[in-house]
Amino acid sequence: MTPVPPAEELERLRQESAAALSQARTVEELEQLRVKYLGRKSRLAGIMKGLSGLPGEQRAEVGKGANLFKREVETQLVARQAALAAPASPAAIDVTLPGSALPHGRLHPVTQTIDEILSLLIPLGFEVADGPEMEFEYYNFDALNIPKDHPSRESFDTFFIDLPSPDPSKGRLLLRSHTSPVQIRVMERRAPPLAIVVPGKVYRPDPLDPSHSFMFHQVEGLLVDDRTSFADLKGLLDRFLKSLFGANTTTRFRPHFFPFTEPSAEVDIACSACGGSGCSTCGRKGWLEIMGCGMVHPNVFKAVGYDPRRVQGFAFGMGVERIAMLKHGITDIRWFFENDLRFLEQF
Amino acid sequence: MKVPLEWLADYVPTKLKPEALAERLTMAGLEVTGIEHDVLDLEITPNRADCLSIIGVAREVAAITGQRLQLPSAAARGSVKTSKAAKPIITIEDATGCPRYIGRLITGVKVGPSPDWMQRRLTAAGARPINNLVDITNYVLLEYGQPLHAFDFSRLAGGTILVRRARANEKITTLDGVARTLTPDALVIADAERAVAVAGIMGGVGSEVTGRTTTVLLESAQFDPVLVRRTARKLGLSSDSSYRFERGVDPAGVETASARAASLIAELAGGAEQAVVDVGRKPAAHAAIALDAARANRWLGIRLDPPAIRTSLARLSCRVASSGNSGSLRVIPPSFRQDLTHEVDLYEELARIAGYDKIRSTVPRIAPPAAAEGPTAYEQLRSLRTLCAELGLVETISWSLLSSSDLARCGMASGAAALANPLSQDHALLRPSLVPGLLQAVRRNLTHGADVVRIFELGDVVAERKEQARLGIAISGVWLRDWQGSRPSDFYRLSGLVQELLRRWGRTSAQFAAASGSWASAGASILVGGQRIGLAGQVQPKILQELDIEQPVWIAELSVPPLLELRRRAGGVTAPATVPPVRRDLSIVVGADVPFEQIRDTIRQIAGAKAARVELVDRYTGRQIPAGKCSLTFALEYRDAARTLTAEEADALHQQVGAALLSRFGAALR
Fold first, then answer.
1. Domain co-membership, A87 together with A113
2. Do residues B510 and B494 lie in contact, with contact meaning Cβ atoms separated by under 8 Å?
3. Residues 523 to 552 of B: which have CB under 8 A from any A CB?
4. Which of A1, B145, B174, B504 is the most buried (most CB within 10 A)?
5. pTM to 2 decimals?
6. Burial annotation A306-329 (CB, 10 A radius, 16+ → b, else e)
């Protein structure tokens, strides 16, 4: 048998190895092929070994071809290895399995509603102020022009606290029935002009039912300077309510009575459920009572040591739960305080 | 206040449809809350006592529609035959409590049913017809707002009326059939022997008009609002009469209403008036109120000239005079408007008559605050709330008022502040802690099938007589679960939350020192810089049992003021290190009773400033570890702030750490 010339054999090996490598399915197969084509017992090793027996010219040529072959196989091996290591078929992970969620926290709807209200008023120049829930009779009533033994106190039935008053000159301790005492506390401390908003918890002895709770939240506003008028109050609240309930909201100001404001008004918005024709949401009135307001009574200014001839301004207040109920279609105020996660986690 | 439209039409014949009239009244401040069978239901605010009568409402209708008011004529009655012998003796002992008392003696009355039209009107207005005399007093009360009372004169001992304070323990049975004991702060109407009525509130049994009555003493009087209110409250007795006296009746109406009733009695019960005894002061004229037109306009944000102001106020029956300067007015309100005492009361009337809806809205120019006081407590608490929510907790708000059993269960029964006038025993005490409320929330959710509860509340409690803000966290059930595995809630989940909160809130961390509390077992005090700021732990099984909670619950309660202080004091941040750390693992076997904190502190102490990270990555007890011992594995990083540590330096430090743990705790390196 005539021996195949080395150059010819290299060419055959090149074709054979290329085909074998491209069909290798596993890393182990690749390793076997590496041993077969480049190993110590491979044909390549045999050719290299036989180089010394070849004439000078042919030796150089075959040597060059053998090295080229070796590099080619090595390159193919690396490429094939990378291909085998790459992510296999898409079926390897099920991308539709549920992702791993982190524990999710939330703020209470009352907190969220207060935040929304404040976020509409703070940019207008109002500062947030607060005060205690356990309050003196003086701040809750007397300083707000609600004298003892006056029927106007009747609208503000109040829980009194069975503790000795730390300052008997300010009367008994009670749970504040509105956030208005904070007006007095701030005005006692600061000179006008001032503009504050006061969020907080308030208490009234109303038995629990779907629309009443002995504990609820209010946001109060107070603006005092030397020029702010009732027309300004209307403008501010109209703008505020349109921001809160939508640009198409219609508002209505109706005379009312609060001892600490004069004139006083109740603010209604047209019922969004029926559009003003009357339904169960608005008690067939077509309007929803949304807040109370008015021009601060000069007696209140007197109580805090302001000169009632030189200052004027307005105050307003609203129930947070009532607003949240209207905005979210909540039908029972007690849900806010039952802390059922199935309710809270919807916000 | 129920207003039959047919009755109202006697005084102001309005052509408005009921709905239109209701709308006008509502927009004038007399809110109509319902219309049924041509009867308006009005909500009268406490300041508008004058509208607690049909004529009062008619006046208001006349004022807002510009119509004329037609009042009934009270003068048309039989001639007064005064016979000296029969004249009752009326004495006022307490002139403050009763400024005026008019008694009319009417003889020859025939008691019987009142005419149909009167019964119909009374019924429509919500009063029950009884007999003609009683019906007439009720009718005039509803018509004028002046309460009246009819005594059977023959049953008044001595034929006298004495207005005096009650004697101590004086007894009277009021017309509602209740026997009452009075005290000297109550005002009574008495005859020569005993109290026959609680002044302004209710008459007594024994002097009331009956079917046999022929001679009547008709009382029309004015009583002090505060006195009536206090007595009514004390007795727990309210009547149409006391309701009106408390709010203030028209002093001029005492006489008019008395005459009107006498005329109706003559007409409908055939009586003849024998005597009119008018005791006390005639009402003083309403003091004039100075009104500055410019200020009124500035206050309301409108432009009304003095003539327009005059016209508006005149429609409300005010007398207006201008003094010199035309912008400065003197206004005398009518006697029935006792609520108009201050200049701003007149501003409101101007706005009402103009119509609130006619006042053009403007936008206030708010002056920037003189000096900001820094973030308010609310704003700080808001950040704290947000942080808690970011840590995976759902915010709850629970009742601030709890029952004594709610508190007793958590060992907090004694010392909680109580309400003086609770609505019910379920909500009679001010919560001294957030824990009972958190537990109720946990129970509610577990009952409804939740398998994890992660909640917090930020709110005030009253402890040691002081209101103070607290932060409470409660966790129960599987902290985190998905198909790859789950992590249960446990103490370390809770303490980790607290640590993370403190780290993010105040760039600080807490120490936990084993402690228990009224509700906690296996718990710990939370210390920051040596100060105790709260308690964390597992809720005692006994408490959970009473609440029917069948799985463990962990709670932490922190005091908020120290947290706010931490936030304020939080220092600056440090720049990220630029030199790389050298990482080494450390595994030791040590007595399981050695507090971890001591081991960690030893590592930190030996490595000093070069301890860039000391992290426990594994704690193991069990096979291969001798009983009573545990294996701890730390990932450590050493770093020198100034230069790169060599491997040799790090190894030397690492050996020192191992040696110290060996000598201090007998720890064996693995």
1. no
2. no
3. none
4. B145
5. 0.85
6. bebeebbbbbbbbbbbbbbbbbee
- Tell me the CA distances in angstroms from A103 to A112, A172, B513, B614, one per residue in order: 20, 46, 28, 27
Whether the CB of A322 is below 8 Å from some CB of chain B: the reply is no
Nearest CA in chain B to A165: B465
Q: CA angle B117-B119-B124, nearest 5°?
A: 95
d(CA B274, CA B298): 57
Structural domain range at position A186 = 109-344
The answer to whether residue A295 sits within a structural domain is: yes
Sign of the CA dihedral running A6, A12, A18, A20 = negative
Q: Which residues of A touch B398 (CB under 8 A)?
A: 337, 339
Contact B420 A191 (CB under 8 A): no
More confident residue, B83 or B332: B332
Q: Do the beta carbons of residue A221 and residue A128 sit within 8 Å?
A: no
Check if the beta carbon of residue B512 is closer than 8 Å to that of residue B524: yes
Dig out the tokens for A195 from the structure.
């503009």
Q: Is the pLDDT of residue B5 over 60?
A: yes
Domain total in chain A: 2
> Cβ-count burial of A275 within 10 angstroms (0-12 exposed, 13-18 middle, 19+ buried)?
exposed
Cα–Cα dist B615/B608, whole Å: 15
Q: Domain check: are A128 and A81 in the same one?
A: no
Token pair 């001032």 is at which residue? Answer: A194
| One domain, residues A292 and A248 | yes
pLDDT per residue as tens digits for the range B220-237: 999 999 999 999 999 999
Percentages of chain A per state (helix, strand, coil), in multiples of 5: 45, 20, 35
Q: Do A35 and A137 belong to one domain?
A: no
Cβ-based neighbour number of residue B412 at 10 Å? 22
CB B226 within 8 A of CB B245: no
Which residues in chain A are closer than 8 Å to B445, comparing Cβ atoms?
A: 339-341
What is the complex's ipTM, to 2 decimals? 0.89
- CB-CB contact of B602 with B659 (8 Å): no
Statement: residue A2 has pLDDT above 70: no
CA distance B172 to B575: 86
Instruction: Quickly tell me which residue has 């009194």 as its tokens.
Output: A160
- Phi, psi at residue A264, to the nearest 5°? -115, 155
Binding-face residues of B in 428-467 toward A, CB within 8 A: 430, 440-441, 444-445, 448, 450, 453-456, 459-460, 462, 465, 467
Please name each of the domains of chain B with its CATH number.
Answer: 2-65 (3.30.56.10), 84-280 (3.50.40.10), 289-356 (3.30.56.10), 377-568 (3.30.930.10), 582-669 (3.30.70.380)
Contact predicate B274/B326, CB 8 Å: no
CB contact under 8 A, B398 and A194: no
Overall average pLDDT of the B119-133 stretch: 95
Q: Which residues of A touch B29 (CB under 8 A)?
A: 254-257
Secondary structure (3-state) at B223: coil
Residues B570-624: pLDDT tens digits? 777 888 888 888 999 999 999 999 999 999 999 999 998 898 999 999 999 888 8
Q: What is the pLDDT of residues A141-191, one digit of tens each?
A: 999 999 887 776 766 789 999 999 999 999 999 999 999 999 999 999 999
Quick one: B44 exposed, middle or buried, by C-beta within 10 A (0-12, 13-18, 19+)? buried
Tokens of residue A11, six digits: 């060419």
Q: Which residues in B lie closer than 8 A to residue A101 (C-beta atoms)?
A: 482
Please report residues of B whose CB lies closer than 8 A to that of A207: 423-424
| CB of B367 closer than 8 Å to CB of B401 | no
| Interface touch B393/A152, C-beta < 8 Å | no
